[in-house]
Design a protein that fits this description.
Length: 163
């Protein structure tokens, strides 16, 4: 963390600004550098993994990771996986990176059986210690919230189309 103190006092403006995506201004989410080490392409890794990376959650922004203090920005093309949050309407981009659930696989199951077992299945795997979200998910965190949102969205669409 750089010093923001001068002879006239201290300011937290620099610290707050470091959380904001340089491309869109969205508040970035702190991620562990291990996430970047696992997901950056070789060229991305060669540019260096910053000490305090942030994840930009804005679907309309091409920036995935940034570290303002280090002056580093990574876009989806710098990753070895597509990013669900950057392509939320894609049927084939993983929603769950550990167990391979996509919007299409969830929809197929819901159309076939009337329900999705994705959330229940992933929850059981997490409890069993078999997830690797901090390494496999570009957000560096659990996907269950995203999976539940996809299930609700599909359920509402299927209800509308089957009513």
């Amino acid at each position: 963390m750089s010093s923001c103190c001068t002879h006239t006092g201290c300011s937290s403006t620099l610290d707050a600004a470091s959380d904001l995506c340089p491309a869109c201004g969205a508040k970035g989410i702190s991620v562990d550098p291990i996430t970047l080490k696992a997901l950056l392409t070789p060229d991305g890794l060669r540019r260096g993994v910053p000490p305090d990376p942030r994840y930009c959650p804005n679907a309309n922004c091409q920036t995935v990771y940034f570290d303002r203090a280090a002056g580093v920005v990574f876009r989806e093309t710098d990753l070895i996986v597509p990013v669900h949050a950057k392509q939320p309407d894609s049927d084939v981009v993983p929603v769950c990176y550990c167990f391979g659930y996509t919007e299409q696989s969830i929809r197929d199951e819901m159309e076939r059986t009337g329900a999705s077992t994705a959330t229940t299945s992933i929850t059981a795997e997490v409890k069993a210690g078999r997830c690797a979200c901090e390494v496999k998910n570009p957000k560096g965190s659990c996907c269950l919230g995203d999976v539940a949102r996809v299930e609700r969205r599909i359920a509402s669409r299927l209800t509308l189309t089957t009513s």
